[in-house]
Automatic annotation (TrEMBL):
Keywords, sorted A to Z: Acyltransferase, Transferase
InterPro entries assigned: Acyl_CoA_acyltransferase (IPR016181), Bact_Acetyltransf (IPR050832), GNAT_dom (IPR000182)
Residue span(s) of domain N-acetyltransferase: 28-181
GO molecular function, one term: acyltransferase activity, transferring groups other than amino-acyl groups
Superkingdom field: Bacteria
Source species: Nocardioides oleivorans
Protein name as annotated: GNAT family N-acetyltransferase
Pfam (any one): Acetyltransf_1
Length: 181
């Protein structure tokens, strides 16, 4: 995190030394969650869908009234979900879906007040490391007009493969990106 002024602690928390020196603690804990944390996942997923409705394949309306078993099933069906927690609420999320010979990074989101802090990079690293532990590359799709996300993925070591051939002309363009771990 050179130059950001933020430090990662050994437990995966993000500490801002400037705030700590004033007696204010700004820590972000990065934790892997499962079906028993479905309520926390629900909260952060709905926040992401409200904040960035065009960034995901699902919509807020698709999930807002979902029953507990649907939330739990999502956390079982997608084997890696990582949440970034502040002292008051979840402020980021990312998932990794096992696609056989590769891992798909999906559902990436960072709360607006945490953008630019390096948190996105830390979440991305969690999925890439998980994929690499299984000797798999990480792939993702990102909206062509989401320049900030493309920059974050590029900084994290992803290669932009461009818009896939045959992309539908009536759909928002998405770029394919790859990280070889």
């Amino acid at each position: 995190m050179a130059g950001s002024g933020l430090l990662w602690t050994e437990c995966g928390a993000l500490r801002d030394p400037a705030l700590a020196s004033l007696g204010l603690v700004s820590e972000i804990e990065i934790v892997r969650i499962g079906p028993d944390e479905w309520e926390e996942f629900r909260d952060v997923r709905l926040a992401s869908l409200r904040d960035a409705p065009g960034a995901f394949g699902a919509t807020y309306d698709d999930w807002v009234d979902a029953a507990e078993d649907r939330w739990r099933r999502r956390l079982v069906d997608v084997p890696l979900t990582v949440v970034a927690r502040s002292s008051t609420r979840p402020v980021g999320v990312v998932s990794g879906a096992d696609a056989g010979d590769r891992v798909e990074l999906i559902s990436m989101w960072v709360a607006p007040e945490q953008r630019g802090t390096g948190l996105a990079g830390r979440l991305i690293e969690e999925v890439v490391a998980w994929a690499a532990s299984g000797d798999k590359p990480t792939f993702l799709m990102v909206r062509d007009d989401n320049e900030a996300a493309i920059r974050s993925y590029t900084r994290a070591g992803f290669t932009d493969l461009g818009v896939p051939d045959g992309w539908p002309t009536d759909a928002p363009r998405e770029r394919r990106m790859r990280h070889d771990g």
